Amino acid sequence: MRLFVKPSIGQLQWIVWVFVFLVLTLSLLPMDGFAQAFVYALLYTTFYAAIIYGNIYWLYPSLYKKGRVIIYIIAVLVFLVVIGIVKSYITLNIYNLFFAKHPETMSVKAVAGMVIGGFMVFLLSFVFRIAIEYFKLKQHTDEMIARKTQAELDLLKSQVQPHFLFNTLNNIYYEAYLEAPRTASLIERLSDIMRYFVDESPKQLVSLTTEIQFLENYIALEKIRIRYDIDLDFIKDCEATISIPPMLLMTFVENIFKHGIDKSSTNNKISIRLIQNNGRLSFITENTVPARQVKAPSTGFGLVNLRKRLVLLYADDFELNVNHENDSFIACLTIPLA
Fold first, then answer.
1. What is the distance between the alpha carbons of residues 168 and 190, in angstroms, rounded to a whole number?
2. Cα separation, 73 vs 27, whole angstroms
3. What is the CA angle 10-25-92, rounded to 5?
4. CA dist., res. 185 & res. 310, Å (int)
5. Where are its TM segments located (predicted)?
6. Helices 250-259 and 208-222: crossing angle, nearest 10°?
7. Count of Cβ atoms closer than 10 Å to residue 311 Cβ
8. 233 strand-pairing partners
9. Per DSSP, what are the bridge partners of residue 283?
10. What's the CA gap between 72 and 63, in Å, rounded?
């Protein structure tokens, strides 16, 4: 929430003129009373504004800036004399009409005083003009800085470093470890999964150790949602140094937890095996089938997409089989090792 909004140039000018009006009112108040001080302050402020804006928006740009200096000086003198006469005439008539006990007449001395006062205000108009230009330049600069900052923020938003999130999760992990070690362990697994997606999944090949760790982290997080313990057996009869394409084994494990687990049952069994033999790697999963359907039936998109990917990777040099036998669901994938 923005608690303070910078005023615009127009608003700043209004603030200045209100301030001038208040100063004039307070200075005239001891001699003239509130009503007369108020009227005269309003009148003087109006004429001061006419002199200043008449110069900076009319005489100066139309004459001086075009090189017509002599004409500009003459025009300024005429302008100030006219303003002085008009101001004297209006001031005198207002005074005689509302405030004077005895009417007064307009004198040359009074007009001369008005003209000289107008000349002093005219000199201030240059200061006023410089101030306006300064605020315009500053406002333009602030807008450019704001646009640049916003552009940089937009760029950062579109290129947020995932490691910031990892570091934050690490900090949360250390805080949770003191109070709830199990929760801390789950946070660590979530961090590892996210790091896998960011750092490993774009690669062509990842180590089997990394893939296994990813599966184990996923299983640990999925088990949170299940009321009872699962009888899970994960056998790894393979070399840890071999490499495979990332996310190749995930579909089977994901399908088990989406469609093969009954959260209300105490008899959920899962068997996962990785077997290396004769230059090939077999990934076999087996799980009990729930007695009642706990989720909508699978559309099979996961296996369809997996098969398409396997064709792209290995042409026809792979085996992918799924079988439903009695109360068990068995899936088997065999791929060549490079």
1. 12
2. 32
3. 105
4. 34
5. 12-31, 37-60, 69-90, 110-132
6. 10
7. 13
8. 271
9. 274, 333
10. 5
pLDDT band at 2 (very low <50, low <70, confident <90, very high): very low
- In the chain, which ranges are continuous DSSP H helix? 9-54, 60-62, 69-94, 108-158, 162-179, 181-195, 208-222, 250-259, 301-314
User: Of the given ranges (74-78, 166-170, 248-252, 256-260), which has the lowest mean pLDDT?
Assistant: 166-170
Q: What is the spatial distance between Cα 21 and Cα 51, in angstroms, rounded to a whole number?
A: 15
Cα gap 134→129, rounded to integer Å: 8
| 8 A C-beta contact, residue 153 and residue 181 | no
Which token pair is 132? 């306006």
pLDDT in tens, 113-154: 888 888 888 887 777 777 777 777 887 787 777 776 666 555
Backbone torsion region of residue 311, taken as left when φ is above 0, otherwise alpha when ψ lies between -120 and 50, otherwise beta: alpha
Residues 244, 206: contact at Cβ < 8 Å?
A: yes
Tokens of 264: 């209300």
Cβ proximity of 265 and 228 under 8 Å: yes
State residue 278 phi and psi, 5-degree precision: 55, 45
Residues with Cβ within 8 Å of residue 50, at least 6 apart in sequence: 83
AA identity, residue 259: H
Give the relative orientation of helices 181-195 and 162-179 as an angle to the nearest 10 degrees: 170
pTM over 0.70: no
Query: Which DSSP state fits 317?
Result: -
SS (H, E, C) 44-77: HHHHHHHHHHHHHHHHHHHCHHHCCHHHHHHHHH
Tokens of 300: 């099979």
Which tokens belong to 223?
Answer: 């088990």
Q: What is the pLDDT of residue 293?
A: 57
